[in-house]
Design brief:
Blueprint: H1 12-39, H2 46-57, H3 62-101
Length: about 100
């Protein structure tokens, strides 16, 4: 038995039994999954998956809405930066005109 197969706290025989049982269970589960996929290619009701795909990727789906929202947020960020910059320039100009007049 290799060091990878050894389970801490168990003897070599106990670890072998646990590994053998786990391997058989995994093989059985994989065989069931393959059999289920060959008899029914869509694990969910295919109509449901069609609706889900339409909701996510359709013309007015979540993907397009999120993309639009990301663009709008980016525009708002630049708009707020521009407004802040304009306010700072106006404040500096007002202070400069007061200092230069006085």
């Amino acid at each position: 038995m290799s060091a990878d197969d050894q389970i801490p706290g168990f003897t070599a025989e106990q670890a072998w039994v646990i590994n053998t049982i786990a391997e058989k269970a995994a093989t059985k589960a994989a065989d069931k999954a393959v059999a289920a996929l060959t008899t029914r290619p869509c694990p969910f009701a295919c109509e449901d998956m069609t609706d889900v795909k339409e909701t996510l990727y359709g013309a007015d789906g979540i993907k397009s809405r999120v993309t639009t929202l990301e663009e709008q947020v980016a525009n708002l960020v630049w708009l707020s930066r521009s407004a802040l910059g304009a306010a700072i320039v106006a404040a500096v100009a007002a202070i400069a005109s007061l200092v230069l007049k006085g």
